Structure formats: structure tokens, C-alpha cells
């Protein structure tokens, strides 16, 4: 390594063996999976970078607290412990647990859709958020700055809202037709890019001006706070907790897939600042969809692990190593000429497969092609974040074209070492060398919703733009 990267701030106490398959085996395994990496059995994956959602390692403290959990159906002491931690971090009055982020979205978003023809505006909606917006009868509009789409531009906060466009959209659609503004931090589909505090504050001012609810989709809020501390003037002397509190103070609702910056394998959060009526509506809905309001689909053990994990994720030593692991892999690829989103984000390296394989049309999914080739090369599983994930227009049913066709190489928390990531980098570089040989994919079966999860494909014989 020709740059300094932070060493792991932990010692390894337990290990899980992983195994390699042969190239011949992987060819057959991928074919049997319908050329969809989601359908591969994990035992046949050597290094799994599909997602950082619930795939990390928990600490000895988390495992220890699980042994003291209260599994009472109602009023569990583990709930009250978790509630205290969430309120301490957010400063919000109300808290309801959910089994994961999409469970939280399922409960809250329909409460904000009061009539037909409504919209939600986000810097970029992620897949399940977009799906739940549409299931609630509304439409999702993305409103990120143009700098996001210039992958070579060194901009510190590419996840920011386009503030001019945001206000134009509100005036165009009518403020009464906006169910909410959703601030996604960090901005996953933008390449794991952070959002500045100044931008969030400006969004707050716009939402307040027009009387629109502001939500934070904060699966990676601690990573976002780290980048604010590192890159934004006036924050270097503040702690991650202090920056997070200032961030949450801007919004009305906080939704979280706690499987990311909660450092757990399962969990979600609904936190509401002070809207008692909304809280009571969500409290009613949580019972049939998730569970009783004091467990919301989680066991006492889950809540104990989450209460501890939320605090561990605020530690600067952990966050610096976390970001350095991503930077290590990103620097390796960038130095080899592989086109990646830059600056490197907080949870993954995003490879621009549209630039890597421009001969593959967007509706033949160039990023899926690169993802599959990476698995064939070295048994490494990444994920497509492009036109396949974006899906179809809910009204016209035409394939939507993503501005960038990303392959996301998502690093689970506290799971892999720099040596693992070096192997990943070498494999991506080998695929890059033969990028002109890659072929696109077409559907054999297309799932009607969130199609990237369960659809099946076949290689396309002809590649035409």
C-alpha cells in the first residue's frame, strides 16, 4: 500500500471459514441462478459484497447484552433501553421499532399520502423507498445535484439536493401535493455520497416555507456525520453524536434500516420528533404489519444488540477504519484506470459500468454484466445499482434509464480485512481488462416489483445501443 490506511480497531475473536469454487463450478452456479447474483447460495460466494445491510460482525458487548434480553411481548425492558438510546441520539419524542427499514417505510409513508396524485421528493430514493412510495399511491421524484453524475469531479458532497430544482418541483406540483421530502443520508444510489449540513439546513428551510414534512432516511447517518466532520467547515471539533443531533433537529421524521449504522443483523427505527397524531397512527398500523409497539418485529435480543450497536457506530476510530477500507479498494481501482464514483463514498465503491462497457445498452444492464463477470472471475458477489434497479415507469411501464450504471461493491462492517479487499481489487481489474468482451442480459422472467431481487435473465446475443 502506498498510502496510509487505518488498521482494524479490533482483534478477531471468532472466525468463519469461507471456501472457493472453481471457474467451471461458477459458470454452472450462475446459470442455475438465472444469472441473478441474488439467487446464488452464500456458500458458493467467496467474498460477498452484495450489501452492507445486516451482514457485518457484532461486538462482544453486543453478544453479551443479548444474553440479558427481556423477551416480554409487551413492555420489555430491552425496548425501553433501546428507546432511551434512540431518543438520546435523535432528540425525538416518539420511537417505534420495526424489523428493518422497509418495515418502517411500510408504516409511515402511507400516513403521509392523504389523496391521489401526491409526490415524494428525495435527493435519490433507494429501491424499497421508491417501491413503498408507489405502493402508497404516490410517485417518487429524484432531485440530486448535477455534480453527482460527473464521476471524476472531486466534489465533497455529491449527495446534496438540487435546491433550485427542489423549489421548482414544489411550485410545479403544488405544495399540497407533496407528501414529504426525503433526505437520504448518505445518498446510496449517488455512489454512497454524503450530504452537507448546509444543504440539509437549506432543505429544511424550504420544507418549512411550504409546510412540507421533512423525513431523514438515515440508514448511514453516522457515516454522513463523519464526512461532515471531515469535509465541512465548522464541524471538525464536534463529536459524531453532536453532528447527528444537529442533523436530526432539522427533520420531522427519522426512518432507519438499522442493519447498516445500527451494526446489527436485523432492525429498523421509526422516530417522530413531536407529531403525536402521526405517532398514534403509526402505533396503530405497526400492530398488524410488524408487531406490538414495544417490539415491532424484533426480539428482545435484537433490541439489546441494536441499543449497543447504535452507540458503537458513533465511535470515530470505528468510522475512520470503516471509511479507510472503502478508500483502500477505491484507490486501487482508480489507480488502475477503472471508472469509479469519486470521491469515494462511505459504504461501497461504485464502478461506472456504463463507461466500462459502453457497447451494452442500458436496457441490457451493463452493470449486471460486470457483476456476473466478477463472480465468474473470482467468486465475488457485487450488486447492480442502475437501470435494472431503477425499474419501469409506474405509469407508462417503460424501462427507466439510470443516469449512471453502477456496480456497487459494498463492504460489510467489521467483516473483511484489507487482504480480502485487495483480492477484490485484483479481480475487478482483470474484468476491466476484458471489458470489451462483455455481453448484455435480457429477461427470462421479470418480477413486477423490485425486479432486481427475483428476476431471471439470459445473456443477450446482440448488443445494440
From TrEMBL:
Cofactors demanded by this protein: pyridoxal 5'-phosphate
One Pfam family from the record: Beta_elim_lyase
Name under which the protein is recorded: L-cysteine desulfhydrase
Source species: Mariniplasma anaerobium
Top-level taxon of origin: Bacteria
Domain Aromatic amino acid beta-eliminating lyase/threonine aldolase: 48-424
UniProt record, GO biological process: aromatic amino acid metabolic process
Key words, A-Z: Lyase, Pyridoxal phosphate
Sequence positions bearing N6-(pyridoxal phosphate)lysine: 260
